Amino acid sequence: MRFHTKTHQDRMPKRLTQIVVMLLAISYSSSNLIANEPTGRAFTEAEMLFHQDPRWLGADAALSIPLSKGRILWLFGDTFVATSNAHVRSESEMVRNTVAIQTGEDPRIASIAFHWRQDSDGSPASFFPENGERWYWPGHGIVLDEGSLVIFLYSIVATPGQGLGFASTGYALAVINNPDASAATWNLRIVDAAPNSFDAIPATAVIRDGAYAIAVAIRQEGTHAGALVRYPLTSLAQGDATAAEWWLGDAQGWVPASLLGDRVPTFVLDDAGSECSLHWDARTRSFIHIASYGFGASTIGLREAPAVTGPWSSPVVVYRPPESGSARPFVYAAKAHPELIGPDAADLVVTYAANSFEFSDLLTQHGSRSLYWPRFVVVPIGK
Length: 383
Fold this sequence. Notes:
Tachylectin-2, Chain A
């Protein structure tokens, strides 16, 4: 087995460790998750979408942002990128992040183009490049009225010999002023945001609300409760996060970050998941939150609310991934993609990550085909 300087063996354990720790931190109670007969079903015919480039060999995270009609951005975390004509994971590098542009709203027939950068020696490199010792894992984002695309990035730094060997340093904003162009020619500017004084980091989900973008900020320690922070669209266009306003409940409303003092935001979602999605769905006339619940063997849960600030329903189980029944289950990162078309008009398209706690499983023939690829599910809603 041949490895390169920046091998997946060097990079993958840190991502796996982070996910394990985030999931272990979930204070999960089955009494808070409404068990029912899951309504979701596998959407396997959509999964060839991610097998169109022989060099792109799997990733997790899998967030999506509609750029324009029929054009959709995908954002991925640590990604296997082949470095030889064998196109196998054992001869690949694992870069911190990659992106892809999907053309067409039906994943069964859409085309897709994957993008990453190259180092000076021609080896694969992260699409959102490292900043000195720091690297970025992608969050969600939004297209602004004036045409710019803004993506939230999680900022991570290594801490050798301390704790888990890495730590979050907050977040950054990636601003692209020409998202209609090929991703290979995007004008990309990354602006680091000042860290918060409390435990809540944006943004695993972003929605539009008038002149603002509202983002879900996740607590990192303990149960992954979700707070809300909003930004004026005009400020985001400049890569400026200083105008952030946090939701402090009905009595106080949105409070500028500069005026918080020792106050902390209200956590409107008691458990938002370590990763999640949130969107307004016209079929149900409600906001919908999707996340994975549980550790290792997880289920996908759905919550609803009449307003983004709540009150939110308890999560209802809509799908149990079959990988949760495997010998070493490691299933996480469920998210909805409302811009995608499913087989039925009532279908909400969802993805999740199927991984393994044993990294070598990802390199086997079976693992290379079935593990560490985004898996598709459809959930009928609004009926």
